[in-house]
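## Example pair
The file below holds two records. Each record gives the amino-acid sequence first, followed by its structure token line.
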Amino acid sequence: GWCFWPYKKIDATSSPVSINKPAEWDTIVAYTEKPRTIFDEIRKSRPDKEKVQRALESYLENLKFKNCRINPGYLKALGLKTGT
């Protein structure tokens, strides 16, 4: 048998299934990459709460299998077939 972890990735072709990236997702990623050595830096770089909320809600919606994209080339490389 096969086991995939993770089998879903955001905007990737290196997984069986791809999740559409939410519009504000880059805001969250940018925040995680900013300096975090002192609390003041964390607080100043914190993104707008509403943007983050929208991004996370959109992520949860996009995460549903019906809203994802199957990567047929990835599956073909493994010798698997997509459902019809």
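Second record, same layout:
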Amino acid sequence: MSPANDLLQGTLDLLVLRLLARGPMHGWAISQRLELVSDRVLQVPQGSLYPALHRLEAQGWIVASWGTSENKRRAKFYELTAAGRNMLARERTRWDRLSAAIDTVLEEA
């Protein structure tokens, strides 16, 4: 992660949960989708992404299973659990409140 993306470290779990809400994805696809959707602003190196995936799995918010990727390679696919959906909703609400507060300070200060 670049220094410009320091805030991402605190929001990586939220972003991963949101991407997985679309359906199961393997790690490389998560990384690529995040980069694509953010117009290449958010680029998460494997050294940050995979620990986040393991952390989310340990929390019970995602589950992993082996499958075959679109390029016919064996890959671990991650999927949101019901607990993960609940966490996503809570974290999204928290993020919306935080970003609204930051917007207010930036506009009013």
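Notes on the second record: Confidence is low (pLDDT under 50) at residues 1-6. The two ends are 29 Å apart (CA to CA).
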